[in-house]
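re the bet — no i am not wrong, look at it urself. input seq straight from the record:
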Amino acid sequence: MVKALKIISLLLICIFYWNVAFPKLKHERELFLECNFVDYVLPSQFVKPLCLEFKGLTSDFLLFKFMTFIGGRIEDLNKNNSKLSQYIFCALDTITDLDPYYWDAYYFSQMFLALNNKVEDANILLEKARKYRINDYRPPYYIGFNYFYFLKDNEKGSQYLMEASKLPGSRYYFASLAARLAVYSFQHRDGIIFLEEMLKETRDERAKKEFELRIATLEVLEILENKITEYHKLFGVYPASLNELVKKRLIDKIPEDPYGGDFIIMQNGRIYTTSNMVMKTNNK
C-alpha cells in the first residue's frame, strides 16, 4: 500500500513538472538563447583537423545548424544588426572552407549579406566560389550584379558579367547587360569586341539580333565620341550639340540610334543615348 502511494505521488510530481515547470523552464531557455546567442564560430583551421575525412558531412551539419539558427532572426538582420552579420559571414566562411564547392552556402551569402547592406562581405565569399567553381556562371554573375546594383561600379560589373556570359548555362542576355554596363562606364571598344566574340559563338537567333543591334549602337557611340574629341582638339571646347559636328563637316549627318532614341552630348564630352539601349515600342 505504502509502495503504491509512493508510485502515485511520484507520477503526480512528474505530471505537475511536465505541465507546469517544464514549459516555464523551456520558455526561459528560449528567451535566454534569443537574447544571448553564441555569435562565435570556430575558424576552419581548427575545425578541419577535428572533422578528419568528414569535411563534407561537417559542412552539411554546420549549414543546417546555421539555417536553424538564422531562421528566427531575419528581422534582426533587416535592422542591420552588425553582430549578426558578422556571425553569418564567419559561419559561411568556415562552411565554405570545409567544402569550397558548396553552392548553397555561397548563395546564402548573397541572400543574407548582399541584400542586407553587407555587399563587400558577400563578394569575398563569392570570390571564393569563383575560384573553385570555375565552370559555374553564378559566382561572377552575382559579383557583377553586386558591383553595378549596390556599389554603382558599372565598369567592374560589366567585367564580371562578361565573364559569366561565357560560362556554361549562362543566360543569353548576360552579354547584352554587360555591354550596356560597358556603355555606362564609357568602355565602348570593350563592349564591341566582347559582343563580336559572343556573336561568333552563339546559335540563338534572338541573341544574335540583339548582339548585332548593340554592336551597331556601340560603334555609333564610339565614332561620335572620337569626333567630339577631334572637335575639342581643334576648337578648345566641346560642341554644344551634334549639329556642331555637322557644321564643321566632321560628320555628314547626325546618325540614328538603332534603338530609336536620340544621341545627346553631355558636359564632359561623352555621348548619351535616351534609349538606354532598350528598343522603343510604338503604342498605337
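see?? The longest helix spans residues 2-35. told u. also The longest strand covers residues 263-265. so pay up
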